[in-house]
Amino acid sequence: MLHVMIYDKKNDYFYDGFRGKTSPEKHKFWEKLSMKEKIELCEKKAKEKGGNIHGWFDALNPKYSWSFSPEEVKQWFVEEGFSHIKYGNMKFNININGILC
Prior knowledge:
- By secondary structure, the protein is an alpha+beta fold.
- The chain is built from 4 helices and 3 strands.
- The model has no long low-confidence stretch (mean pLDDT 92).
């Protein structure tokens, strides 16, 4: 069985440019921040938009942060021969698993 969690591209707007096509440019801002400033930004995002500091750090820290649609991710599983493909809770992320027989 393979289980993956992928950011859903329909929610890229929520991350203020830190996800999707704009993530490399937005990351230049992030790289200039001290660790204290990064944590403060994550605290601010958590208060404004929900979630927690850890989740926001995970969302804002990667330079390249691509997102995909559920259909694209499912196609990966199909192409690799997985069956019994199932989606999990998908509020912001695509949680999907399948079995390779």
